[in-house]
Amino acid sequence: MRQTRRDFLRHATLAACAAAIPRSAFAATPFEDVVAKVARQQLLPDTYPETEIWGYDGLVPAPEIRVAQGDRVRRRFRNEVPDPSSVHWHGIRIDNAMDGVSGLTQEPVAPGETFDYDFVVPDAGTYWYHAHNRSYEQVARGLRGALIVEEANGPDIDREEVIVLEDWLLDPESGQLFDNFEQPMMMSHGGRTGNFITTNGRYDLTLSAKRNERIRLRIINAASARIFPLTLSGLNGWRVAVDGMPIGQPQQIDGELILGPAQRVDLIVDVTEDEGGVAHLLRIGDDDQPTPLVSFPIDGTASSVPRGKPLPLPPNPAANAPDLADARDLRLVMSGGAMGRMQSALLGGERLGFRQLAQAGKFWALNDVADMTDTPLADLSLNEPVRLKIENQTVFPHAMHLHGMHFRELRPDGAFGPMRDTILLAGNESREIAFTADNPGKWLFHCHMLSHAASGMTTWIRVT
Ligand code: C2O
Ligand code: CU
């Protein structure tokens, strides 16, 4: 068909309009469904039965959501699991009403009901989504998946792989999840860690690669409580982003990389293994033995030479370090747990001894208070700069996560760390974080060892 000049002009105008209006402005983007379902999946080797899981669209990990920076995510959440639920979009600097926290930003969605999530993603990076009602159970059953926001101008790579790390506490006889989600021993110790680890839902994930190929690995620790010490073999890697946010100059990996619960890391790796060999992403076990999380058998050669140090990722908006001249000083003391010194704490306005707290299923306190109350940890005014000293007075590590805003660690020498949304503290360790309270709303601040969050380690801040 001959294209007339008039047709051409009409199309040209349309194209120009489409380019001028950000895609997020189109209100007509349809809602896609995301359905929490009970399903069965082969997690264990084939000689075992399938495992009953709860998965978004019946899958673990959940289907990846992938959008361009600045786009709008529209999902109609339908709850088909037998427990009220909601969806949290971890690490997205989001409109508070869309944050998905049952009991704080929305009512939990009853079985059979729906909730419409509709938000813009301001930052490129590696994020994830997961259940946020009784998450110590719902996340552990499988309600978790990747949310990837692409840069307009991404790095020079041959390909990328999203790596979702999960663990499962399975009965080796039946292959089914133990349903001891509220077991006091786990709550009061390191949290409910699994006895079986999967990568993208598989125990033996194998992805073929080529020598001198450059791969971006987006690694997500979606486990309920497990800390993953990671290492590479046959791969030369650089860290380029943490918790979604670019870190500036890429840092070469030598040795171990620690990923706490809910944390993410983006690596750019060059395959150095020879053809016929196998490169690995490994985890270091408790016995110090490395075991593969991903195996990359080398099949062919991508180029004759490696490319050298990668360029930094483009920075996200609001990446400036906070100006702390008039910052509000806050302090958060974390106490409790087994072998701890906590004698008592406030629960629902009442002072209870450690025994009574334990009977109520509470083992931890933040600033002497177990569980969230109607009073926030802090009432901040919009754009107020904050420094927050976190003192872990327990013998366990904790991964503290702030919703709605990224922070930076303020190191003892006064230097800022990279932007993060989850910070891992070792037992009895103190760290200071700083941020500008630039997102209005009610934001949860809690330990991402999810059984700790449920047994006392949850608070919130209000920004108005
Ligand atoms: Cu990953 Cu309160 O959440
Ligand atoms: Cu914790």
TrEMBL record:
Q: Which CDD domains match?
A: CuRO_1_CumA_like
List the keywords (alphabetical): Metal-binding, Oxidoreductase, Signal
Plastocyanin-like domain boundaries: 38-152, 162-273, 360-463
Would I find 4Fe-4S among this entry's keywords?
A: no
- The stretch of residues making up the signal peptide is 1-27
Look up the domain of life of the source. Answer: Bacteria
InterPro entries assigned: Cu-oxidase-like_N, Cu-oxidase_2nd, Cu-oxidase_C, Cu-oxidase_fam, Cu_oxidase_Cu_BS, Cupredoxin, TAT_signal, TAT_signal_bac_arc
Is Nucleus one of the keywords UniProt gives this record? no
Alphabetized PANTHER family for the sequence: MULTI-COPPER OXIDASE, MULTICOPPER OXIDASE LPR1
Output the NCBIfam families linked to this UniProt entry. Answer: TAT_signal_seq
> What's the protein name?
Multicopper oxidase family protein
